[in-house]
Amino acid sequence: MIIILAVVSLIIVKRLMNPERVKEELLAYLSLKIGGTVEFRSVEINFIPGPHIVLGGGVFSVPGKAEGKFETVIAYPKVLPLLRGEVEISSLKVLKPEIRIHAQDASTEETHAAAEPFSFAVLRNDIKGAIDNLAIHGKGLNAEIEDGTLILVKDGSPMLNFSGLNAEISLPADRLMVRIRSASNLWRFFNFVMSIDVKNYQGSGTLTMKGVNAHKFMDFYLTSDRMIYGSDVNFSAKFDTSGLNVLDAEISSSVPSIKLKGDDEEYDLSASDIEAVLHLDDARQSIKLTSAKLLNPALDLSGECVVDKTGSQISLGLHGKNVDVDSVRDGALFIAGENNVTDEIFDVVRSGTVPEITLNARGSSFKDLWKHGNFRIEGDMVNGGIYIPGVDFNIVEANGHALIADGELRATNLSGKLGNSKGSNGTLVLGIDGPEGPFTLDITIDADPSQIPPVLEQFVHDPTFDKEMNLIRDIQGTVHGRLALGDKKHAVNAKVNVPSFDFIADYGRFPYPVHLEGGPFDYDIDKINVENLKVAAGKSSSTILSGSYGWDQEDSFSVRASDTTIDLGEFIPWLSSFSSLKPGLKEIRSASGTAFFKSIEFTGSPSDRAGWKIAGGGNLKG
User: Angle CA(474)–CA(600)–CA(477) in degrees, nearest 5?
Assistant: First the structure.
C-alpha cells in the first residue's frame, strides 16, 4: 500500500511541476532572498532519487553591493506544498559560485565612520540583523555552497580572494547552524563553526585560521598607513555569546613571521604559544593576554587591556619576563618611529636582560596612554649596557632597578663598570621629556686611577688644570670614593669625594715616580681639597695636612705640610728645570744631603711661579 501511495504521489507531483511555472517561482523566490535579481539559462526537473530542480548557468545581481554567477543550483522542494501546486524550497546546493562583493568607496566609509564609529554594539546589530533575516525567510532551509569563490572588490579591482569556499547553513527550527571552510589569498586554511538560537541569541562556536596573511588586510583597509608587508599567523578561537550582548572567547595563536616596514627600515616580528581571553559587551571590552612567548623581540609577555566605555577610559597592564633589551630596543624604536620618549629611554638603556618588567598605563585613548604622567614602567636589569648622556659614560655589566614615570627615568641600586672602574650603590635620575630635563648620578666608585684625569677634564674648564692633568702618566693603584653628577642635562656638574686612595704615577714635572696615599680628596665645581696625604717621590717624602687648588676667579693653590724630607741631590736639579728659578740656582754646582722641615706652607699660582711663597722651618744634614 505504501509503495502504491508513493508511486501515485510521484505521478501527481510530476504533472504539477511545470518547468516554466517552476522557473518563474524559483526566480521570484531566489530574488526575494538576496534582495536583487536572479537569472539562469536552463531548468531541469528530476525525480530520482527524489524531486529536485537543477538550475544551470545562472547569474545574479544586488545593485551597488554584489553580483556573481553560478555553475549549478540544485533545489529540493518540499513535497506537500507541491501536492498543492506550490513550490517551497527545503534545501539548496550551489555548485561553483563566484560572488563579487563591492566595498564602499573611501568617502562613504569616512562619512559612516564619522557618524557611527565601530563598536561592539555596531557589530552586534549587524549580526543580529542577518540572523533575524534568516529566521524570517529561511526557517527550515538547508543551504550548501560547494567549491565557491568569494571576491571582495575595491575601487573596481579585486583585492581579497576566498577560493575553495565550502559552506553549510541550516535552520531546522529555531537554531541556526553555520559551517564555513575556505582557502584564500588571505590564509591557507579557514574553518568557522557556529550554532545560535535565533530567538534568544544564545550561541557558541569555533574559528580556526592557519597561515593568515595579515598584510593583505592592510592592502584592503589601510593602504595609506600600511606597515605590514609580509605575515604568517596562526589563530584559533572558541567563543560563546549571551543574547549577543556579551561575547567571550578563548584565543590561541602563533606568529611565525610578521614583516614590518617603515621608511627605509624593516623589522621581523615573531611569537609562539600565545594564549588570550577576549571579552566584549556594551560597557567593557577587554583582552587578557594569559601568556605569549615572543621570539623577536625576545621576551615572555602577559597582561590585560581594558576599554571602559562608560568612563571613556583605556587601561593597559603588561608583565614581561626574560626581556632581551637589544631586541626589544630595535622593535620599540621601529614601531614608535619619531617618539621622543622612546628615543630617550633607549638612548640610555642599550643592552642587557630584564628578568621582570611591568608597564601600567591609563588614558582616554590609546594615544593618550603614552602622555606625560599616564604610564609607568618598572623593572630590574641584569648585565646591561647604559649610556649616560652629557658625560659620555658607557657603563657595562650594569645592574639595578629602574622606574620610568612622570617624564623621568629613575634607577636605584645601580652598579656597573666604566672601563676598569667599578660602580655600586648608585642612583640615577634622567629626564626623558626633552633636553631641559633633570639629570643626577650618584654612585660609589672603586676607580682605576688612570681614568680619573680624563673624567675630571670633562668638568674642569681651566687651561692650567688641563695642562697639569696631561702631565700625569702611568697611574697605578686604587681609589675608592663617590661620584655625583648633576643637576641638569644641558649643564652637568660633578662632585667627587674620595675618603681614601693609594696610587703611584709619573708626573711630567718631576723625574721620579710620585706615590700618593691618604685622604680624603674632594672635588666640587671649581676647587679641589685634600687632607692627610702622604707623598713620596724618589728619596723625598712629606705629609700634607691640607691642600687646595681652585680656579674660580684665578687659579691658585695652598699646601700645608709636616715632616717633610727633601733629598737635595734630587730636588735642586728639579728646581733648576724651572726657567723662573734657574737664575737664582745657577751658582749651585752640586748638592747633597737632606733638608728636613717640621712644617712648611706653600702658596701661589701654577701660572705665576715667580709669585710662589714658601715658608717653613727645619734643618739640613750633609
Answer: 20
| Residue 113: Cβ-neighbour burial (10 angstroms; 0-12, 13-18, 19+) | exposed
- What confidence tier does 156 reach under pLDDT thresholds 50, 70, 90? confident
Q: Rounded to an integer, what distance in angstroms lies between the CA atom of residue 420 and that of residue 452?
A: 11
Exposure string (b/e) for 532-571, b if CB count within 10 Å is 16 or more? ebebbbbebebebbebbbbbeeebbbebbbeebebbbebb
Hey, CA dihedral for 558, 564, 569, 570, is it positive or negative? Answer: negative
Q: Return the C-alpha cell found at 414.
A: 645601580
Spatial separation of the C-alpha atoms in residues 301 and 479, rounded to whole Å: 43
User: Rounded CA gap, 221 and 219, in Å?
Assistant: 6
What Rg do the C-alpha atoms of the chain give, in angstroms?
43
Rounded Cα gap, residues 525 and 496, in angstroms: 9
Residue 351: name the closest of 337, 368, 330 by CA.
330
In contact, 388 and 423? CB cutoff 8 Å: no
Q: Map grid coordinates 501527481 to a residue.
A: 12
Tell the residue number behind the cell numbers 626574560, with chain if given.
Answer: 322
Cα–Cα distances (Å) from 576 to 253, 472, 570, 608, in that order, read: 83, 20, 11, 16
Residues present in the chain in total:
622
Q: Is it true that the peptide bond before 355 is cis, omega within 30 degrees of 0?
A: no
- End-to-end Cα spacing for the chain: 152
The total of other beta-carbon atoms located within 10 Å of residue 234's CB is: 19
**pLDDT tens digits for range 28-85:** 777 877 778 888 888 887 777 767 888 888 898 988 788 999 899 888 877 676 666 5
Residue 226 predicted with pLDDT over 80: no
- For residue 588, how many other CB atoms are within 10 A of its CB? 12
Highest mean pLDDT of the ranges 279-283, 314-318, 447-451: 314-318
**In angstroms, rounded to a whole number, what is the distance separating the alpha carbons of residues 289 and 57?**
50
Single-letter amino acid code for the residue at 470: N
DSSP state at residue 29:
H
